[in-house]
Amino acid sequence: MPAADRVVTDVARRFLDVRALTDTLAERLSPEDQTPQSMTEASPAKWHRAHVTWFFEEFILRQDPGYTVYDDTFRYLFNSYYEAVGERHPRPDRGLVTRPGVRDVTRYREHVDAAMVDRLERGDLDEAALELVELGCNHEQQHQELLLIDIKHLFSTHAFGPVYVDREPDEPGVVTPVGWRQFEGGVVEAGAVGSGFSYDNEGPRHRVYLEDFEIADRAVTNADWLEFMADDGYRRAEFWLSDGWATIRETGWEAPGYWRDETGTRSPDPADWTTYTLSGRRRIVPDEPVAHVSFYEADAYARWAGARLPTEFEWEIAAGSLGAQRGALLDPGRCHPGRAGSAMIGDVWEWTASAYLPYPGFVPANGAVGEYNGKFMSDQHVLRGASAVTPAGHERLTYRNFFPAPSRWVFSGLRLAR
Amino acid sequence: MPAADRVVTDVARRFLDVRALTDTLAERLSPEDQTPQSMTEASPAKWHRAHVTWFFEEFILRQDPGYTVYDDTFRYLFNSYYEAVGERHPRPDRGLVTRPGVRDVTRYREHVDAAMVDRLERGDLDEAALELVELGCNHEQQHQELLLIDIKHLFSTHAFGPVYVDREPDEPGVVTPVGWRQFEGGVVEAGAVGSGFSYDNEGPRHRVYLEDFEIADRAVTNADWLEFMADDGYRRAEFWLSDGWATIRETGWEAPGYWRDETGTRSPDPADWTTYTLSGRRRIVPDEPVAHVSFYEADAYARWAGARLPTEFEWEIAAGSLGAQRGALLDPGRCHPGRAGSAMIGDVWEWTASAYLPYPGFVPANGAVGEYNGKFMSDQHVLRGASAVTPAGHERLTYRNFFPAPSRWVFSGLRLAR
Amino acid sequence: MPAADRVVTDVARRFLDVRALTDTLAERLSPEDQTPQSMTEASPAKWHRAHVTWFFEEFILRQDPGYTVYDDTFRYLFNSYYEAVGERHPRPDRGLVTRPGVRDVTRYREHVDAAMVDRLERGDLDEAALELVELGCNHEQQHQELLLIDIKHLFSTHAFGPVYVDREPDEPGVVTPVGWRQFEGGVVEAGAVGSGFSYDNEGPRHRVYLEDFEIADRAVTNADWLEFMADDGYRRAEFWLSDGWATIRETGWEAPGYWRDETGTRSPDPADWTTYTLSGRRRIVPDEPVAHVSFYEADAYARWAGARLPTEFEWEIAAGSLGAQRGALLDPGRCHPGRAGSAMIGDVWEWTASAYLPYPGFVPANGAVGEYNGKFMSDQHVLRGASAVTPAGHERLTYRNFFPAPSRWVFSGLRLAR
Amino acid sequence: MPAADRVVTDVARRFLDVRALTDTLAERLSPEDQTPQSMTEASPAKWHRAHVTWFFEEFILRQDPGYTVYDDTFRYLFNSYYEAVGERHPRPDRGLVTRPGVRDVTRYREHVDAAMVDRLERGDLDEAALELVELGCNHEQQHQELLLIDIKHLFSTHAFGPVYVDREPDEPGVVTPVGWRQFEGGVVEAGAVGSGFSYDNEGPRHRVYLEDFEIADRAVTNADWLEFMADDGYRRAEFWLSDGWATIRETGWEAPGYWRDETGTRSPDPADWTTYTLSGRRRIVPDEPVAHVSFYEADAYARWAGARLPTEFEWEIAAGSLGAQRGALLDPGRCHPGRAGSAMIGDVWEWTASAYLPYPGFVPANGAVGEYNGKFMSDQHVLRGASAVTPAGHERLTYRNFFPAPSRWVFSGLRLAR
């Protein structure tokens, strides 16, 4: 009996729901689409699908002596970065692993799904193991987002812009002026409280001293960004961090990622610009939040605007006061931000002024999963919120996303503070 | 009615035979296998299959106003290096073009096959066009070999060595001592005489002055090569060209391409070494001709052996005197050299001492096809003969293959002269 | 009358003292020594001497219409990174600028010295200008340290280890066990109070919330480091940040910068190791603070030791409680750390856990000097204290030094916290 | 008594003359000028002066047990590429060796000069040793040319173009039309006959079969080159070898080395272009032979002109028929080509169509000096003639100069054939 048809426990249901979304996202991709790696930071879709499966096999199923490993070579092929697990396939060469193919990866997923459901139904997993299952589900959700941004990057390198999802063009709307929400300083608490799932890097909850601050009531939009460009924002060194200035001179960036000037005039008219979306190349929609900007660009924009980026603690306090408001989260039929609204979670991740560092008292989990977050705590920048390709339920007020400063293939935007 | 079932002219039959072999070679490759590019010099199998098809479309079919182009984007995607045809997809990114997929490439092949057969049957192609058809057939044969060496390279990067073709292991045989065949010098003629097909770079036939020379009666074998290794051949600078020495220090090469020391002892015992073959990783067979050595290694070996490489003219004169003898050519059920015998054509390409330069009076063909050979006449080295993955009928006494000195993914070996 | 012989004001005296130390440091360097640049991050000694001079000319003297510019090409040649000042010589090519030579640079220094003393004696500089003079003096002191670490790096590339300063070898002493000093958490104030000179990046003074913490009463020593090495510290991934692990695998680092294993045994005996010092290659002195480790190594050591690096605020609170204690500062006759003692300022800079970020409310100075510090506030790490090549008087409790994580040509060590 | 004042033998006189010219060339260079290395292929002037000295010490003086080595570290520091002599300083870091300085190198030269003159006067050197002395003299002459082209390259990187030698600007003259000299084909002899000094690579003299050919009666001039540029020579792929086209797209070359378009209009008017010369930046002189073009550019020009480059054998036959005619050779007061005249030797080296390969029967000398030429016989191109910085007496009809195809810091031009 296929796993999906059985009566299952809540945990198993949660597990299967997450697993099913991955399959849904992969359905539109041919075996060829799922094979290449368009840059070192990205991974093949096929690899994502196998790696998240390996995670359950490695950390849950292999603990059970009765489990039959699907294919022992997969431990080498689909370990991402866990040194404690052993040697692994070199990251830059993930796109060369043509075998297993997509069909075999699907069978691998089915094998692990069945074994996991069996295991979950048996009811003998202890608390630590159940936490690892939940970690595995969150891990897979995180990779659902990565799968989509990696496919977007891959498709964008194609001269004729393939379409991942068909949808109607968005009509341009009205760009509202920015308003400012005010917060008083003092000692505040930040970080995950510990009820409900969170990654280890979100804790411990701890005290922070904040000065008074103001934060914008909406994200920076494409229309705002065109003004920055029209004011020679990419050509005036005074707005830029030194590394940022070096980066844009070396890369030649003059606009956000995926943007293209269709007229060669660098006009500030949105109608002259297109951007590659998961529905193919589209006109810029002025009232959408700007996406695919690097930390350097976000920081330069803020300086140009006479403002700054919020720290992650300012952001968390401000977002906490808004309650359950959400912008666009992952809708497989859209995969693109909506209009900039008042919600702080959703649409685009927002760069903060904070470096990605451990909170006071941070201790990574024991064993290989302790490598999940902690070892990346240097030279990365915290993004907060969530994006239009973050699966619903995976977003969280205390979520700390992190990327190096030049990254812009994630749906990354910004919000001003001062 | 499918093209393959029709009564066809000789030219069409020749055309269809060549086309069919490509399909046979691709049959064992999954869509995933056909997608990646494992190094800049290699191309995806899918790309090879489409590119050779584009060649017929571009140079034959597009001349006919009645022809319906299959997909206009393919001109950009599948042009290899013809500047005169226009812009093209960047070579290092061929592995990122997931669309068209394998199925669509197959349809493209069928579309062009049908149109070509139609065209050939109509009987209205002039001599120049028929020569282009024959050039296209040779071009496709050349790419059949490239497809196989590129797949071999791709598969060799896989930690678990996939098998392209199943076959029994070869039994080690006896390595015969080298004999020397003697030739007297003087003015000789070399190059293609012009009856039957040849590439433009094989002519014009012209006179060359040769000194007396001797040439070995068999290729250098794996057993020979192990002696060179055992005598510290890779560690003694006195045998090496300066660029060769720099290359092996930078790459760390200590043995031919695809070889692996299974004991870590660098023993000269063939039983301790394996090589990756298209049938997976196999023990070294001592009496096979050594393959996958660079020009630098071939040259160093020759110096170690107190000999030298033959010039391409010496090689041609010597091979011409042997008549129709052939070593192993492409057998889809084997794809691997046989034992070193007296034939000079087949098994492995043989590096010569000659730089790849135009013959006196060489003029490339008019138009885009003039870019086929001539523009590569700098800093490459001539190989003569043919290999175990060269399609039968494509080999030729005057054939000039050429690769840069460090190349070793081709089945490249050597023969001594003095 | 030479500037140095005149009766001068206090400011002029201060100016001339700083200038004189630069000349003293350069005296032991031949014109050849002063010319090359051994890596992009370093600069030629001659360039340092000219650049600090240009700083006074650019920001003070050129404001005076009566000033005669020494050589107008120097503005291009000796601007370091001030975009607002205009185009400049590419940083990686500083070692190719052979003209002006050392003698001409000396004349340039004399010209600017004389003009500066004139200007200072005239007594008509306003407060802002006098602050720029003081900034220029601190700038030159900072470059005195850079000149020495750059020369150390340059000389270390020489196969026969030139001696910059002759001195007796240090006798090994006793390594004392680490003690821990305890501090209670709460809201504290950090940053420069504004009396006396400080860089803009040291302010504004602001409140920070700290948890309780302990900090070691001495720096990590060479003896400690040898234990880490003996315990396979450089080979166990579990201690390392991901970027750190990648860095040591790529670079092959197995010991601090300038260390050399003289026996090839990687023994933990200090007698088997040497380090390049400004007095040539010397035996490791066990009770000296370890120097020339990167942030990655410092962080890994701390994790191995079951501790962590202090934040820059913890460091500042702890150092503040020690008062005026100083370890070794620049002594031109030594240029090397002393034994690890209780002082936190001196001997070696200490890596902290803090990223180099603006303090709340930070605003860079107006004009070109605003580029002095602020634009480097990304992806660098704060070091606190001072080193044995920091000029006395330049060290400060609130001083924020900063370097990228892999840097180790500065005298960089660490102190544990927990 | 200083060596230069003594009565000396002819060989010693020859030796001292060569040595003196090196000193003359270095006199205008400051210690700073003599220190850096502006690219890997170039060397510091100081290094050239020491290396040529080391050559005599290594191959002559060290054979004498009574000789006192000047400094044993110099064997490591100043060996260029002789593997047989042992380890040596890495080539790309020659510019970091500040010690020995210029003064010490001068003393080293004096030490070796004195010892050599002693040795030569003693009259006990055997024939082989005397041949090595002559080789050493030729070696030093070769480095005189290298010293000048390396200094030209170094100075050209300086924003303000230093002057090596003062001289009046050349007046533009009249460009004469090209005439063609005709030669009949057949078996000819080429290579050094063995009387008088020649490098090993110039022999053995051997027979070659040539077709009929014509060769231009003057070199290609700057005026000719401007026509090629005006006809979009650098933008039309059809003229270029594939590697050449890739090179100019990557480098952005649009004119010969050191040329600069002073108007930004890329006009074909020589008055709008300057070139960096050893006398500083100067206007293009139309009737001078073009210099500082790569093999790729020379080859493309020839194709554009409907001609080709001569082979080195055609060149040698043609130049041999002209007798003792010489263009400009090294005049320390000029260091720049004269007007294009009928001489084939002098002014600029001329790229040929020939790859740099061993002549039939070539055997390198025994011992370390066997590395002088032979090991470079791959992937380089032969230039014939001599240039305006080749010392008089060093030029030779059979001289084979060689450089990789993209090189253009040598005074390299071309002459057409067909």
UniProtKB/TrEMBL annotation, chains A, B, C, D:
It holds the Pfam family FGE-sulfatase. GO terms for biological process: ergothioneine biosynthetic process. Residues 184-322, 344-418 form the Sulfatase-modifying factor enzyme-like domain. It comes from the Bacteria. Keywords: Iron, Oxidoreductase. Gene3D superfamilies: paralog of FGE (formylglycine-generating enzyme). Residues 16-145 form the DinB-like domain. Pathway: Amino-acid biosynthesis; ergothioneine biosynthesis. InterPro entries: CTDL_fold (IPR016187), DinB-like (IPR024775), EgtB (IPR017806), Sulfatase_Mod_Factor_Kinase (IPR051043), SUMF_dom (IPR005532), SUMF_sf (IPR042095). NCBIfam families: egtB_TIGR03440. This is Sulfatase maturase. It comes from Gordonia lacunae.
